[in-house]
Amino acid sequence: MTAQIINGKEIAEKKRLEIAKEVERLKELGVTPGLAVILVGNNHASRTYVNNKEKACKELGMNSLLIEMQEEVSEEELLAKINELNENPEIHGILVQLPLPKHIEEKKVIESISPSKDVDGFHPINIGRMMTGQDAFLPCTPYGIMVLLEETGISVAGKHVVVVGRSNIVGKPVGQLFLNQDATVTYCHSKTKDLRFHTNQADILIAAVGIPNFIKEEHVKDGAVIIDVGINRNENGKLCGDVAFDEVVEKAGFITPVPKGVGPMTITMLMYNTAKSAAWSLDRN
């Protein structure tokens, strides 16, 4: 058996057409969704991500504001800029590109963003609302994973989902989203004993550990759905995921490739959240 490829690029393009229509509707009502991105320092990977977000905004007809700050900027100055954006009615989403320099506390920065503009879905209030099944801005990569499955026609209810990785950005929230949709969820991590025992029980396996080709054929149950969140470089410098694709693809039922799998969905759901925030702003006014 060869797995069916879940094409994240195609699904993201379909979702963006829906977002573009919503942006048009909002503009007719007098609101243009606006996203502000703060970039501190000159990290090459961060700059690439920011450029991609700006491009997506432009393609969808949204306003994009890039604020660049020096590596040496003080925490106080950064927090003051965030507060200024919180008060700006033309900005509906605020994103501070991570990682930040070591002298700035990420937790304090995330908590300073207004929950109503936290389109990354990292603020404790949005996390708490997600945990309790309330409407909230959902973290973009986990949300994108759920959309991938939904668009592929893969039912989640009653399935056993195993999440390998427990980061606050992907691992923890994606497990909660599955739980909210009536899946049974097991979390695995670096301290888990006999990882293979757990992963072999997975109907849906989420690989989010940041280690190239970590998940092998031996970790996968026949016919399982494999979602590869990893973006790594192998020893030859080639882009790869956390899953050894070439061997797992022959055993799985569905699998996301790297690239063109989960990656395109992350920025797409950021755009979705920004449009959603703009729509909410109409209700508040």
How would you briefly describe this protein structure?
With 285 residues, the protein is of the alpha/beta class. It contains ten helices and eleven strands.
Explained architecture:
This protein is α/β, with parallel strands linked by helices and about 280 residues long. It folds into two domains: about 30-115, Leucine Dehydrogenase, chain A, domain 1 (Rossmann fold), CATH 3.40.50.10860; about 140-260, NAD(P)-binding Rossmann-like Domain (Rossmann fold), CATH 3.40.50.720. Helix content is about 40%, strand content about 15%. It has helices at about 10-30, 45-60, 75-85, 105-110, 125-130, 140-150, 170-180, 195-200, 245-250, 265-285; strands spanning about 5, 35-40, 65-70, 95, 160-165, 185-190, 205, 225-230, 230-235, 240, 255. Strands 1-11-8-7-5-6 form a six-stranded parallel sheet. Strand 5 (about 160-165), helix 7 (about 170-180) and strand 6 (about 185-190) form a beta-alpha-beta unit. Helix 2 (about 45-60) crosses helix 10 (about 265-285), helix 6 packs across helix 7 (about 170-180) and helix 6 (about 140-150) packs across helix 10 (about 265-285). The longest helix is centred in the C-terminal third of the chain and has 22 residues, at about 265-285. The model has no long low-confidence stretch (mean pLDDT about 95).
